[in-house]
Structure formats: structure tokens, C-alpha cells
Structure to design on (490 residues):
RNA sequence: GCGAAGUUAGUAUAGCCUGGCAGUACACCAGCUUCCCAAGCUGGGAGCCGCGGGUUCAAAUCCCGCACUUCGCACCA
């Protein structure tokens, strides 16, 4: 099947029909856009994605994982720069009420800078005589639109915010974790959880949400020892696809450092682990790239920035932002809080630098679905070829026919498997229909009980991708499934 | 936020112009059949027709408002 025959709509349809995800607030008309729910199969896929992330990144690189609060006080976001920087100055036309970003309309105006006040922007609008690009009407006064959701805590409605990224608690907690958990540089601290952004125009289901999952990793390192990574050899030969703005070329992590395409081994090591993780997650790596961001695209804190992107039917999609943030975060929190964020690295006292990998989980799951879905025209079926260790349903347990005690025997086998494996019991309808349903949900294996089972204690084990079957003794079944769905390791 | 088009069962849709019992296909459930790949037969469940208001004896249908979706613009740590 050609890649082009699977598009956004067929993934969306699969998601709705097979319980992967659907809009939140179903029956109510005032449900806002940008909020989606995961159904049973979506939860299963997400759980396995996160488990693979823990194995392939957190545990493999000896990181520590925390789980921080989603609500944080204003001071955190003063220190992080979000209160000042996570806002867009907007102006609205008084005639047609179209809204524009003021800094885009005034691009190139030397009197303005990031964080110009509304009055400075109004002055620039007046001085240059800017009017509405749409209808030519007069522009109203500018205001700042902050993308953070504000909250009122307690009866006094004390201000607080839903976090717009998970990582701030990692920075705030870093000194405590480093001390109490006996950390040593370089130290990765990881967190998976929800973040919230008040997007003006959320679109395309999981691709742009107002409430979404992130998996973030902050690697704290000594800026003087960025090439001092013991495990670098593990990924030295790992290929990554680097995109420099015009061309994409595949290089090994080692070569990327030698040629200066990647600044140091700390960055290259983690980028290599990331690439291996996504390969294991079932994304088609030939349709991915690490894109180097230009100066104008970089976030305001980043000194070097790579976006890990995947090609899907709607275009290139950013899955992970990899930023070298230097000491921006720790020095910001040190200054705002008055606490000390320096730590000892051997006999050297350093304020660690941070390399961040900020992963969008929802987008990653969408990409896995799109890259895994195929139409098998020859056998007239739709197949979700998830890697076996990623599948929300690992094994279907079917009776070929219900009578002569086959149903009862099937249920016994189902009960013996379901605690260890995600199993699905099905008696009803034609066997081919049941196989196809399992194919569409991505179940890699199906066990079928037939009359021979009653005679010799064997069942058939069918593989989703090839439709091939073999006979397996019931006693060996759990082991066979375990081997098939095991998580990969280096 | 702007513009356009939409919103009817799990999914895709007909009906709307011209107001009068909400239908079809696939999917789903049960039974029969069937010893391995969406077969067939019989039966069944499923929808406050996006939400709210108005007109009318009567609204999926006409009018108004709102929400959401898609596409384009704009936006996007």
C-alpha cells in the first residue's frame, strides 16, 4: 500500500470507530474545542508509549522521574519568563473586528522589542499610520493575550496558573532532588503529565490541543564537561536524519559531533536515544528529521534548537523540541527565589546548564497510528500494524464455533491469559470478521480454539501482519505471547 | 479571531428548496448455519435530526442567536 492512501481522515475515522480518541464533552453543545478524550484503545496505546519512554530514555540513561503539580504560583512563571514572554500583543480592528498580532503588523520597527508595552505598541501604530490589512479600518488599542490559563485559588481567588509546560517543576525541584537522591552531573530528570495552553485556534484533534500530554526530560550538565558522556558509545553508530533548512542527510551521532553539526556529545547522546526510542515506538524513521531551527524560530531561551519532526498527511509535524537552554532556567529561579541552585560536580561548584527534550505525546500517538495504518487490498482488510509491544490489545481469544464446549474452553484460556496480557474474548460472528476487527485495533496475535483443541490441547496462533497460523500447545501459550509482545532493549 | 461550507444512529449519508409518523448502507447485538479469514438467512437495538429561542395547529425542514467541525486566512515555545 502506498503511504498516500492513509490520510488524516482515515486515522480520525479509525480513532472514532475503534475507541482510540474522540472529542470531549460529547452530548453538550457548549463543549470547547481543543479538548479530547482517550478511549480504551487510546489509553492502552498511550500507556505502552509511556512505558517504552521510561525504558528507552529514563531508565536506559539513568534518569530520575518526578510527578509535579499542574497548578503553580505566579512567581514560578515570573522566573520562567512565561508571564512576560508567553503572551502575544494583539490588536483588533474597530470596523471588522479581525484580530492581528501587533508585532507582525509592525515587523521591522526598530522602536519595538519583545515585551514592548501596549502603550509603546499603540504609539508605533499611530506613528506609522497602520490600519487593518483586511478592511482598512482603524485599529483599536493593543492588549497582551497570555496563553496560560489563570486560576483563582481559595475563597480569596489568589492567582495561580495551569502549567503551560511540565518542566518548571523539574527546575524548581532540582536542588532538592539532587541532594536527597544523591544526584551527580549529568543528571536527567523526567516528567510525564498534562500541560495547558489557551490556544486561539486549536485544530486537528490530537495535533493541536488546549489540554495535552507532554513527556519532558531536562538533562542537567556541567557546561565545562559536555563531551564527558560515558555511555556515548551506545549511540555512536546510531543514525539520525539531520535537516539544515535545505537538505536532509543521514549521519551517525558520532559523525554529527565530529563535523560540528551537533554541538557536543551530551546533546548527541540524548538525540540518539530519542531516535532509537521512536524507532521502537513504530514511527517510520525514513519519514522523520531533526530540523535545526533558525535564529528567528528559536524560543527565546534556547541557544541551540533542534525539532524532531515526522512527516504525516498534513505535513511535517513537530513531535519533540530539543533545546540547549544553558542556565536560563536555573539562574531565573535562583534570582526570583533567592535560593541557591549551584551544585558540586566533583570539586567544582557549577550552576548546571540544561539540555531539554520536550515531547508531545498526543502528536506522537497520532503519528504512530498514521504510520501504522494500511489498507491490505489483497485481503480486503484494514490493518493497524502496531509494533506488538505497543498494541492496546495483545491477543484476541476466539472460539471457532460456540458449540460442543468450545466456548467454555475458550473462556478458560482467556481467563488464564488476561492478567498478564491485554486479551480480548470474542465468540460472535464469522471467524474472518473477528480476525479483521482485531486487525483494525492493531492486535498482533489471535488464539483460536477448535475441535482439535479438545483432543490434543493445542490452539492456532494467528499473526496479524502475515495472517499465518501455527499450532501451539495451550501450556506454551503464555510464554509464546510473552516473547512476541516483549519490549525491545538495546 | 476573520471568511466560506457544514453539523441527522458507532460511521457515511438521504430527507430540507415545497413544514405533516426520520429513512438507507456499513458497523453493532441475538439466534440459525459455518472446522479458519468481512459469506448467507431470521430477528433486534440504536437518533431529544448540534444547542437555545422564534414563527406555526404542526419544525430535521422556515427565521434569529450561539456552540462546534472542516477548509482557507491569521496564529502556533
Amino acid at each position: 500500500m502506498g503511504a498516500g492512501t492513509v490520510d488524516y481522515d482515515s486515522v480520525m475515522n479509525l480513532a472514532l470507530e475503534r475507541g482510540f480518541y474522540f472529542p470531549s464533552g460529547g452530548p453538550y453543545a457548549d463543549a470547547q474545542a481543543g479538548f479530547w478524550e482517550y478511549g480504551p484503545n487510546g489509553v492502552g496505546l498511550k500507556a505502552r508509549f509511556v512505558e517504552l519512554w521510561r525504558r528507552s530514555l529514563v531508565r536506559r540513561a539513568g534518569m530520575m522521574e518526578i510527578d509535579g503539580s499542574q497548578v503553580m504560583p505566579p512567581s514560578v512563571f515570573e522566573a520562567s519568563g512565561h508571564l512576560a514572554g508567553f503572551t502575544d500583543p494583539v490588536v483588533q480592528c474597530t470596523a471588522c473586528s479581525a484580530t492581528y498580532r501587533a508585532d507582525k503588523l509592525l515587523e521591522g520597527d526598530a522602536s519595538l522589542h519583545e515585551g514592548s508595552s501596549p502603550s509603546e505598541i499603540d504609539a508605533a501604530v499611530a506613528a506609522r499610520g497602520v490600519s487593518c490589512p483586511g478592511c482598512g479600518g482603524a485599529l483599536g488599542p493593543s492588549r497582551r493575550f497570555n496563553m496560560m490559563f489563570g486560576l483563582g485559588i481559595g475563597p480569596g481567588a489568589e492567582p495561580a496558573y495551569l502549567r503551560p509546560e511540565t518542566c518548571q517543576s523539574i527546575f524548581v525541584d532540582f536542588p532538592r532532588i539532587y541532594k536527597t537522591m544523591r544526584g551527580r552531573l549529568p543528571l536527567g530528570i523526567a516528567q510525564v503529565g498534562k500541560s495547558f495552553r489557551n490556544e486561539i485556534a486549536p485544530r486537528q484533534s490530537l495535533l493541536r490541543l488546549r489540554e495535552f500530554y507532554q513527556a519532558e526530560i531536562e538533562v542537567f550538565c556541567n557546561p565545562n564537561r559536555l563531551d564527558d558522556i560515558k555511555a556515548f558509545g551506545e549511540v555512536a553508530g546510531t543514525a539520525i536524519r539531520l535537516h539544515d533548512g535545505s537538505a536532509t542527510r543521514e549521519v551517525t551521532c558520532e559523525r554529527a559531533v565530529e563535523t560540528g553539526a551537533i554541538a557536543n556529545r551530551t546533546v548527541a547522546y540524548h538525540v540518539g536515544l530519542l531516535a532509537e526510542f521512536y524507532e521502537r515506538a513504530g514511527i517510520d524513521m525514513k519519514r522523520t528529521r531533526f530540523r535545526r531551527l533558525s535564529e528567528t524560530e528559536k524560543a527565546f531561551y534556547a541557544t541551540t534548537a533542534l525539532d524532531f519532526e515526522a512527516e504525516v498527511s498534513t505535513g511535517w509535524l513537530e513531535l519533540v523540541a530539543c533545546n540547549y537552554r544553558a542556565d536560563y532556567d536555573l539562574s531565573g529561579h535562583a534570582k526570583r527565589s533567592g535560593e541557591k541552585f549551584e551544585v558540586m560536580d566533583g570539586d567544582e561548584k557549577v550552576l548546571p546548564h540544561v539540555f531539554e527534550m520536550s515531547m508531545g505525546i498526543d502528536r506522537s500517538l497520532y503519528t504512530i497510528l498514521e504510520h501504522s495504518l494500511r489498507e491490505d487490498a489483497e485481503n480486503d482488510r484494514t490493518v493497524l500494524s502496531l509494533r506488538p509491544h505497543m498494541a492496546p490489545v495483545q491477543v484476541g481469544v476466539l472460539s471457532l464455533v460456540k458449540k460442543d464446549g468450545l466456548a467454555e474452553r475458550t473462556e478458560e484460556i482467556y481467563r488464564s491469559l488476561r492478567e498478564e496480557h491485554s486479551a480480548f474474548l470474542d465468540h460472535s460472528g464469522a471467524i474472518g470478521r473477528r480476525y479483521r476487527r482485531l486487525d483494525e485495533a492493531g492486535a498482533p496475535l489471535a488464539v483460536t480454539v477448535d475441535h482439535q483443541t479438545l483432543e490434543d490441547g493445542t490452539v492456532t496462533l494467528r499473526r496479524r501482519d502475515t495472517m499465518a497460523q501455527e499450532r501451539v500447545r495451550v501450556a506454551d501459550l503464555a510464554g509464546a505471547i510473552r516473547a512476541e509482545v516483549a519490549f525491545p532493549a538495546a
Notes: Residues 312 and 367 of chain A are 7 Å apart (CA to CA). Chain A has a mean pLDDT of 88.
